[in-house]
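During the no-cost extension, the postdoctoral fellow (Dr. R.K.) reprocessed legacy sequence entries with the updated structure-token encoder. One reprocessed record is reproduced below for audit purposes.
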Amino acid sequence: MSRGATSGKVHTVTSIEVGLKNLGREQDTSVTFTHVDHSVVRFDDKLDVKLEDIDEEYQRGKVFAEGGQGIIREGLDLDLRRPVAIKTLKSQPDDQFTRGQFIQEARVTAQLSHPAIIPIYSLNSDKDDGLHLVMKLVDGKTLKDYLEQLDHEYRTVGIDQFDERKSLMFRLEVMLRVCDALDYAHNRNIMHCDLKPENILIGEFRETYIMDWGIARQIEEPGYDPATWVKPSTISGTPRFLSPEAIHGEHTDQRADIYALGLILFEVVTLREAYMARTSAEVVSMIREGRIAETRHKYGFRIDPDLKAIIAKATAYNRDERYQTVRELASDIRLYMGGEETSANPYGLFGRISAFAVHHKRASLAFAVACILTLLLSIGVTAYRRVSQINAVHNYAQQLASAQTQSTACANYIETNIARNAQFLSAITSEFIFLYETDPDDADITPGCMMPVSALRADAKDNPASLLYSSVYHRKIDFSHFAHKTIHGDELTEVEKRRLHILAHLREPVMDVFRDRLPEKLADASDAEKNEYLRLTGIPLHLLLFGFPDGQYIVYPGSGAYAQNYDPRGRHWYKTAQNSSGEFAWSKPYPGNTAAAGYLLSCNVPMLDTAGNFLGVAGFDLHLNTIIRDLKTNGNVGSGVLEKTLLDAEGLILVSTGARFAGAMETNKEDSLSIRFDDADLFRQFTEIKYGTISRTENGRRIIYCVNYLPSQDWYYFEKIDISATVPNIF
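Re-encoded structure tokens follow.
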């Protein structure tokens, strides 16, 4: 529970009556949560256990919030000496309906174990048979308070004084955390039924929680039969966030929660309410008639069409036209934030090019740091009563938090750079296809556009002075030009010449992209100094490649180290893309053209013209040795860090600092690597938690795995850390 940073008030769940006529008898909603099986949460209407006295386990402190049904006060856990929040029900012991709702909220919330749902510690009674719910104490503010504060600042100071784009990205990250938590609850067969900004809490460290599960219910209710179901005469919830089907008295499912999420997303994006009215009756009338407000920012900030389409789909009047799962909504929000096409607003060819051009100008989006603190409270209470052991547990929690924060920062660094490289490849291929389809009579094709490195021959006498030996590439490299070769060795055909002319136009943007990947300390360096760094030190972005059906091969940076019979059509990167469905295709790690160059990881895409004809393959190589070098200096560092590994969705190792991967690269010089992560059960845990830490004992040492999910590629990044030496003897 939160000590609000603004108003200090905590909303309590209320049940309202909406003037619905001819809807049948009133339905009893005072059911209580009892237990879960492997897939769903179930309810009954009994409380058949004796509750512990609140004053025997907790010290009650001052009240910091009060609502219609309960009060919230600070408290102290007498055993663990940790601060808690205590929610006390106001109703009398004979008010069975209100007590049932209170117990239901406690039991439902306790069973929904998710980082974005406030943990419940216990349900207690007292000598007067009162009810008290003890939970985690969180400092923060509700999403409603946050939006009101933002609105106040924009209104008084002016929106031009703030970075609204950056603020919007943060607000969308909050929505993603809410979506992930609600997706988890829906998969447990639970719908919230009262989603609104007042019930979303943002902590002081940007953690996000969904609160007030008092009127939550099962999505698939036991015994529900559409043929015999009777419409209710009252509706529980907040009028402004009710779905049209709820207003019409129909039986609701998870799509009612999705509709409420869409209304919250409307407010998050526009800073306005979707249904603005003076009374609840007016709101109900507007929802019944589908009179939702225009998706327009309160202060005139431009809202992208993709985002408008997402809001429109989430708030569709007909529930069959909405997102059918929260995961679909979250996926579209993530795609929008990554500058990719959404299911709500699919693009045509030129729409994709235009949308990419817009997003490419924006600052690269970094995924929010997910700090998931996992406190393992499965040990006996007696072990925690000793002061020294309590301090050890506190230190262990700090170790987990610090390790996960550093690991998440490294994962964000990886995903941000992969996304930037993928956007770069998409832009270059789109521009190439556009120019290729341009009428030759309109193209600016002159001999001056030809590239100086006209053939890949290391011994060519006319090589430019910029072709120098690189200790990263282990051959001569020219960062000022593309290079090309053909398999026939004869005079270039007109088609081959045209490709070279097109890429000559793109040379400067390509050079700029490679230089933009350099460390910030080289921002003011000259082009020559930047090229020198690329040649001698290197960056993960290794090569930009083009291969064509006639065997022509074009590469940046230019090189003269390829054999005369080198044919891109037989290379791993070319065949990977050619056999794909038209999307980006990642290869397995494979050896470079020379043994000394090491292993590469390639991202490739088939180039198709507007008629769907195959023009060739474009791709980029990532240099694994350089990536491993960067991994060792980012994230957690030190002797306790045993391994940093990037896995694909099937559990294959893409790159790793571990000895097993290094040994495979050393011994296998011919084929691509197919090394599977050797602990299937641990990998399954990675896919289940996606973000967080997993603690294990291995060979007598306390090991933690800091796990981060990379949604843009469906990959997993983990860091394996030995912390037994720093936090001994607590288990």
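Residues 418-628 form a domain with the Beta-Lactamase fold (CATH 3.30.450.20). DSSP finds 19 helices and 30 strands in the chain. The remaining legacy entries will be reprocessed before the final report is submitted.
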